[in-house]
Specification:
Blueprint (H helix, E strand, L loop, with lengths): L1 H20 L11 E4 L5 E5 L6 E2 L8 H11 L11 H14 L9 H9 L7 H17 L2 H11 L6 E2 L1 H9 L8 H9 L13 H17 L5 H9 L14 H10 L4 E3 L4 H18 L6 E8 L5 E5 L21 E2 L5 H11 L7 E4 L18 E4 H6 L3 H11 L1 H11 L8 H4 L9 E2 L1 H21 L32 H12 L20 E6 L5 E7 L3 E8 L11 H16 L12 E7 L13 E7 L11 E6 L18 E6 L3 H10 L22 E5 L5 E4 L13 E4 L6 E5 L2 E6 L12 E9 L4 E10 L3
Bound molecules: zinc ion (ZN).
The site of zinc ion has 8 residues, from loops.
Length: 781
């Protein structure tokens, strides 16, 4: 008895030891990078490092292919332990009869083991290793896993490896869509790929496929009609080019996740449509030597990117930077950050939506912004300054808010690219002094829309709503936990900003704006960088954010390249396709109504004659009261100002008057004929001086003026200018206490001053005077 046990143990050991010692089949060959849409369809792929189309293993084998494969290769696959003694003996007999190797008797498990060992010669020792490896494989892996291993690594002729790659290369469809005929053809192929290379040797392949189809019919896998139709189906043809529906996105994953299968959030229908829109518009832009155009669309609720067109592919833009993924490229922001500043200032209570902001010629140290149309309005409401994208009011707003605070706000909202100091950017940050990408821009707008939507739905906030766009399906959406708990912006501030952006106003340029006078519900903003290098357009609805960039990847500017003309048409075409019936809900719970002065938009003061109620952020209750309404004392005819020193109290009328500072007034009244200049003081009445009569438009006191020499080497001139409430009054100009000249109506002089500090004094005919000290710096050469 003991002896029998001993023999049994030894026998078992003799079999088990080599099984355990034999290698467990593993596949280490490099893989292709495969990028799929949200429905699993192929967006694009990149070949593996060894030049093979070898897709990463999929998680299942299509049923038709499995049935065809088992019928053709291994009927007893689910019943044998990795080797099938019956087939081995049958193969041995056939080989002996034929005098050569005509059959291997290999199971699919043995073939998988063989595939993992590369293309080795078919020797007996090799065959024995395969058998032991197959046994080990069966011990450690399920039947399904072994099938997947085979399907992913079987050769399909040429440089095509695996069923998935073969299916796309030869049939142009995913493997799970294969017909019975295609499944049969692909089951036959790996057995002798050189013999039956699709596109060649059609007869051999057809004969083998048809035999297999009949065998499957005999097993009742399908009915006779299906068989007839299957036998008539053409064979898989020559290898096809793989789909390339999002080439820049495929490249992005090729860099980041090489050799992986990525299931993205891309909606293939939207991707195709947006590509079509981008290419159609590119065709128009190409006439103006504008070669690159990109568009990204993000779903607000989930943050998922549903379209990613990194560049146009119209007419092969490869030679013109078409290969650059613009969505990830850093470009000058132009005006595209202005909405964030507006929202920040609503939240801080620095301004109310219609607060008047000065719009007059302004120079800041080393920086003199200009409006796009080179004109000034004197004063504009903050919301109009935003929707019309006026530069000077925006710079003044940033000055009031503080550049440092703004930089902090941009970072908290999700921008990561502004990595210099506030001092480095200065006030130009609001006009494109910094760089960002379409990717970040889209992510920030979607985050803002998301907090507004959530607040309206749940009356609360979640920091997790601030995150970059999501590209991988089912990816954890909170990509960066900042650890912060304070929301950078509130639902109310975002809503007020979107209300201002929804208005169809004249944005930046007259040309083409009428084109967008649609009733689309969309908060949108365009931007154009210095030198017409970058044209931006970004728009949001409660459901989507669409961001568009147009320009040249190499940075070449083109006249006429503006956000409105080059980028916005794509935004609106996409919007028409997606639809935008809904609009954001006002988050009334965290807002308040505030009484404002109708003329100035400031919180109403005691002297403001006309007021109205508006919705604003609660902090707006603490905002500055109207500084422009003053009660003045007039004669009965209301033609002159008087004081109690020169008129009887019964002859004095007290009336509130809207008085802008002289420089604002000078430009404001040109565009507002209803504006009435405050009446002059009556002769003999001493002016109370509380209302200045004149003001320097240029230079501003204390400014340092850099004067270049012109081409002849002569210093160019400075043109000081004064706004006087009564332009007909004479002004006497003095430089450093020396009289220079007199002006009337147009108070502008031509000055050639030497480098150094100067004092400019202006005295009007009534004896009012203003002084301005300034410095001139000239270049050496
Ligand atoms: Zn007022």
């Amino acid at each position: 008895m003991k002896r029998k046990i001993k023999i049994l143990l030894i026998t078992t050991g003799v079999i088990i030891t080599p099984v355990l010692l034999s290698p467990l089949p593993r596949f280490k060959a490099p893989l292709s990078t495969v990028v799929e849409a949200n429905d699993g369809s192929l967006l694009g792929a990149r070949i593996a490092d060894d030049g093979q189309w070898r897709f990463p293993p999929s998680d299942s084998v299509p049923e038709k292919f499995e049935k065809a494969l088992l019928a053709f290769e291994d009927n007893y696959f689910y019943f044998h332990p990795g080797i099938n003694p019956v087939s081995l003996i049958r193969a041995m007999i056939s080989n002996i009869k034929a005098g050569k190797v005509v059959s291997g008797g290999s199971t699919l498990t043995m073939q998988s083991a063989r595939l993992s060992r590369g293309n080795r010669a078919r020797t007996y020792p090799e065959k024995i290793i395969e058998m032991f490896s197959a046994l080990k494989l069966e011990l450690f892996r399920s039947k399904k896993e072994i099938l997947e291993m085979y399907a992913s690594n079987a050769p399909f002729g040429g440089n095509t490896v695996g069923l998935e790659a073969a299916s796309w290369r030869y049939s142009g469809i995913p493997a799970y869509n294969l017909s019975w005929a295609e499944a049969a053809a692909f089951a036959v192929l790996p057995n002798a790929p050189s013999l039956v290379f699709p596109g060649k040797n059609q007869e051999v392949l057809k004969r083998r496929r048809d035999e297999l189809l009949r065998k499957m019919f005999a097993r009742h896998y399908f009915d006779s009609v299906t068989l007839t139709l299957a036998l008539d189906e053409p064979l898989p043809g020559e290898p096809k080019t793989l789909p390339s529906k999002a080439s820049h996105l495929t490249d992005l994953f090729f860099k980041k996740n090489k050799g992986s299968r990525i299931i993205t959030t891309i909606d293939p229908v939207v991707q195709e449509k947006v590509t079509e829109i981008v290419n159609a518009h590119q065709k128009i832009l190409a006439n103006n030597q504008i070669h690159n155009l990109a568009c990204i669309i993000e779903k607000v609720e989930t943050g998922e990117v549903i379209a990613y067109v990194g560049n146009s592919s119209f007419n092969d833009t490869a030679g013109n930077g078409g290969d650059v993924d613009i969505i990830q490229s850093l470009r000058s922001t132009g005006s595209i950050l202005k909405p964030v500043l507006y929202a920040g200032m609503q939240l801080s209570g620095d301004i109310l939506p219609n607060t008047l902001i000065p719009d007059i010629p302004t120079r800041f140290p080393g920086f003199s912004p200009k409006n796009f149309d080179q004109t000034w309005s004197g004063a504009v409401t903050a919301s109009n300054a935003l929707s019309q994208s006026l530069n000077i009011p925006s710079v003044r707003m940033l000055q009031k808010y503080n550049p440092e605070k703004f930089l902090t706000l941009l970072k908290a909202a999700g921008f990561t690219t502004f990595n210099k100091t506030a001092g480095y950017y200065g006030l130009s940050l609001i006009l494109g002094g910094g760089e960002t990408s379409l990717w970040e821009l889209c992510g920030v707008y979607a985050s803002l829309s998301r907090i507004l939507n959530r607040f309206n739905k749940e009356q609360k906030y979640s920091m997790s709503d601030f995150h970059p766009p999501v590209l991988i399906r089912n990816e954890n959406k909170v990509l960066s936990d900042t650890g912060k708990t304070e929301m950078p912006l509130s639902a109310a501030s975002v809503w007020l900003t979107y209300e201002a952006l929804q208005r169809v106003n004249r944005p930046e340029s007259e040309t083409g704006w009428q084109y967008f006078s649609s009733s689309q519900n969309c908060a949108w903003k365009t931007g154009t960088s210095f030198g017409f290098r970058d044209a931006w357009a970004v728009g949001t609805t409660p459901e989507y954010v669409i961001a568009v960039w147009a320009g040249n990847a190499d940075g070449e500017g083109r006249p006429g390249l503006t956000g409105v003309t080059a980028a916005a048409p794509v935004l609106f075409n996409v919007l028409n396709f997606l639809g935008s019936e809904k609009w954001f809900v006002r988050p009334s719970e965290e807002m308040t109504t505030i009484k404002i002065c109708t003329s100035s938009g400031y919180r109403a003061g005691p002297d403001c004659p006309e007021t109205e109620e508006i919705w604003a952020c609660v902090s707006g209750l603490k905002s500055e009261a109207c500084p422009y309404h003053h009660v003045i004392h007039l004669n009965k005819a209301k033609t002159m100002r008087v004081t109690s020193a020169c008129a009887a109290p019964s002859d004095i009328i007290n009336e509130p008057w809207f008085v802008l500072p002289p420089a604002m007034e000078y430009f404001y009244k040109q565009k507002h004929p209803e504006y009435k200049t405050v009446p002059p003081p009556a002769p003999g009445c001493t002016d109370d001086k509380s209302i200045p009569v004149m003001e320097y438009i240029y230079p501003s006191p204390g400014v340092k003026i850099f004067i270049p020499r012109d081409q002849t080497g002569t210093l160019t001139r400075v043109i000081p200018e004064i706004a006087h409430r009564v332009p007909s009054k004479k002004i006497f100009w003095h430089l450093d206490n020396n009289f220079i000249t007199t002006t009337r109506f147009i108070h502008q002089i031509d000055l050639l001053a030497t480098p150094g500090t100067h004092l400019l004094t202006a005295v009007d005919e009534d004896g009012n005077s203003i002084r301005c000290s300034f410095s001139i710096i000239s270049s050496i050469n």
